[in-house]
Give the backbone structure.
Amino acid sequence: MTPAEIELLATIGASTYHNVTSSICAFVLYGVYILSVAIAIRLIIESNTGKRKHKLIWLSVAILGAFALLMTPNFITRSMFLLVSAEKEFIQTLSQGIAAQVQAARQREYVLNQILLWPLPLVLIMSDSIAMWRAWVMWQNNNYVRGMLMLLFVGNFVTQVCDEIFDHLTLAGTLEHEPSFFTIHWDLASAVVSLAVNLSTTALIGYKAWEYRNQFRTLGLGHHKLTISQQVLLLWIESGVIFCALQILWVAFQFLDTQSTSVTVFNVIAVIVVQILFAAGGLYPIAVFIMVNLKMSMVEEITFNTANSMQANTQRVDQQGHSTGTVVESG
């Protein structure tokens, strides 16, 4: 065996190690996702009553089903990828040598790689859109905030799609420049924009939660148990923070360029983070749907309770002012 073949075998081993690690994470998280979808659908069906029941059920199931359709190809394709790689690289032997076997494997893996390109950005686009919807319904009377959210949505959509287009062109070998010149920069841009979306929405919701609780304290209800709306707001904030933390790691790995095929702890962690981020993008909307559908009026309560609290506070101040005026007049 020549030194070149020994080096090629080491590269194949490292690539296989990464693929197996990534697939194990994907398989485990896919099982968690399917279980979560089943729980969410059952809770949605049991909690919805009234005229809007069927429409809300179908809407929720359709959105969750869309996420499932994006998660499932990742599961199936990764299974096929491992089988094809093992067959072409290790089982079938060619007279031309190991390099020819690797080339045959890459040709068979081309279509599978194309399929694996799209689920992650589409899941992130949908997940980020739901995150922006959370902030959108809480800032109904602020056109500046809504305009910012709309710009973030458009920017996120464009960068995610452009990133995958350049990845597709890189795999097809149609780029004139060095492939990494485009893929690394667009990978980084898409990661940063998606992070900006989630940081912004989490901050906007956090401010509303703080404002909402302060108004409860103004009404003398600060020592009472948290309402359902406050609990949900806190859950949303915590979920957003966790998702943002994963995205910060993702951005860091993009900055450090972890596309090397060598087996290092750093590269293995990068592979795991990508799969966890992909799964979190699908699990995050499920948590939102579960909480929204457990209490049908929750969104309305979050949106309008602030106004009702302010109105009640104003009435109390007016009553106090009227009472003071009466005392002064009688004095």
Observations:
- Residues 296-300, 312-318, 320-331 have pLDDT under 50 and may be disordered.
